[in-house]
């Protein structure tokens, strides 16, 4: 494959990249280096003991052009001797033979056709997929082998493959999740500067629904003091509903090692007044306090109720999303719990 104005670079030569074919840059993606590799396996087994609701994942790429400041996958870049910050955003490993390798793996008699999740460590429909076109082959291989799968993305490019995905859904369980945690385009530019706009993602939700699929939405992470207000959530849930989303999974920011350092540096640049608040909320750990999680969980349940999101247990497309939902079990919230005082540290007049 040739890109316009592409140039070979030796940027990958010193990296521990098995199967490296070449490293290239192109003016179309300024500042980005693509490391094209031949992979030996396409399916990754989720480690035992994980609370993920699927056993297998496929990542067609490593690193992600979407540059989300909060991305929890950043740490995985360190295994390549790259850093979890700027390198994760700009040093993209592309498994150019992923579809062929996958087709061979799922054709084995030992393959048990367990659910496969795409979009867990990198976005399969980031802009570069327009040139590499890896996903059609992946979808075809999964469909041909009758393997159920789900795709989570922020990329409107998925629309290109909707005919294939719709055909797949006639043969296997298919879940399409769109990642959208706020609708404010200015905030999006600050928090996740490489992503398509919220409007583009709402249009994607609509296109998925129009194709007869049941799009769910991953509204994660909700950012304390930035996107957790009633106004933000009300607008988000309303917009998703109007676009045809069938379910919303929402949860607070996690700051695991790798993501934590990068996100806190970003926060210090963009919203310095929030740094002490986040430190108080997260302490030294990766998660917000239990009190905050419960507070947000109640608010999310109320938003679902107000906007008419009803859980559909038999809906194949939403299955894995529903099972990761922290609210998926338990009683509806008591009105008193929704009305109680905000347990967070007091907010200054920043917003
Ligand atoms: S789209 Fe997903 S994988 Fe890509 S940077 Fe954002 S959170 Fe990470």
Explain the layout of strands and helices.
Blueprint: E1 7-9, E2 20-25, E3 33-37, E4 44-45, E5 56-58, E6 61-62, H1 86-90, E7 91-95, H2 98-106, E8 116-118, H3 129-132, H4 135-144, E9 149-153, H5 162-169, E10 174-179, H6 185-191, H7 198-210, E11 216-222, H8 230-243, E12 247-252, H9 259-270, H10 275-282, H11 290-307, H12 319-324, H13 335-339
Parallel strand pairs: 3-7, 5-8, 8-9, 9-10, 10-11, 11-12
Antiparallel strand pairs: 1-2, 2-3, 4-5, 6-7
The structure holds iron/sulfur cluster.
Residues 64, 66-68, 71, 73, 122-123, 154, 192 line the site of iron/sulfur cluster.
InterPro entries: Elp3/MiaA/NifB-like_rSAM, MJ0683-like, rSAM, rSAM_sf
Protein name: DNA repair photolyase
Region (Disordered): 322-351
Describe this structure in words.
The chain is α/β, with parallel strands linked by helices. Helix content is 34%, strand content 15%. The chain has a 7-stranded mixed sheet. Strands 1-2-3-7-6 form a 5-stranded mixed sheet. A hairpin with a 7-residue loop joins β2 and β3. The longest helix has 18 residues, at 290-307. The protein is globular, with a radius of gyration of 20 Å. The termini are far apart. The chain binds iron/sulfur cluster (SF4). Iron/sulfur cluster (SF4) is lined by residues 64, 66-68, 71, 73, 122-123, 154, 192.
């Amino acid at each position: 494959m040739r890109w316009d104005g592409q140039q070979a670079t030796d940027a990958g030569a010193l990296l521990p990249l098995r199967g490296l074919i070449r490293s290239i840059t192109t003016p179309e993606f300024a500042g980005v280096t693509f490391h094209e590799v031949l992979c030996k396996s396409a399916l990754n087994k989720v480690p035992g003991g994980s609370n993920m609701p699927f056993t297998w994942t496929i990542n067609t790429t490593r690193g992600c052009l979407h540059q989300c400041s909060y991305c929890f996958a950043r740490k995985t870049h360190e295994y390549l001797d790259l850093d979890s910050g700027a390198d994760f955003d700009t040093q993209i490993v592309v498994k150019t033979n992923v579809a062929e390798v996958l087709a061979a793996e799922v054709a084995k008699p030992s393959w048990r056709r367990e659910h496969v999740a795409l979009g867990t460590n990198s976005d399969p429909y980031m802009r570069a997929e327009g040139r590499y076109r890896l996903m059609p082959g992946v979808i075809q291989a999964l469909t041909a082998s009758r393997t159920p799968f789900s795709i989570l993305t922020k990329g409107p490019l998925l629309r290109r493959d909707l005919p294939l995905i719709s055909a797949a859904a006639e043969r296997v369980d298919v879940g399409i999740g769109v990642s959208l945690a706020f609708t404010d385009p200015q905030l999006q530019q600050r928090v996740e500067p490489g992503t398509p706009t919220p409007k583009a993602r709402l249009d994607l939700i609509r296109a998925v629904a129009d194709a007869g699929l049941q799009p769910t939405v991953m509204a994660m992470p909700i950012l304390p003091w930035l996107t957790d207000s009633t106004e933000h959530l009300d607008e988000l849930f309303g917009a998703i509903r109007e676009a045809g989303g069938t379910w919303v999974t929402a949860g607070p920011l996690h700051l695991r090692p790798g993501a934590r350092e990068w996100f806190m540096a970003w926060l210090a640049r963009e919203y310095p007044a929030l740094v002490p608040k986040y430190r108080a909320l997260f302490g030294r750990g990766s998660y917000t306090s239990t009190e905050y999680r419960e507070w947000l969980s109640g608010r999310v349940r109320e938003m679902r109720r107000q906007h008419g999101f009803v859980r559909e247990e038999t809906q194949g497309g939403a299955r894995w999303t529903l099972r990761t939902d922290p609210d998926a079990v338990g009683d509806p919230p008591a009105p008193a719990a929704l009305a109680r005082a905000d347990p967070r540290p007091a907010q200054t007049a920043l917003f």
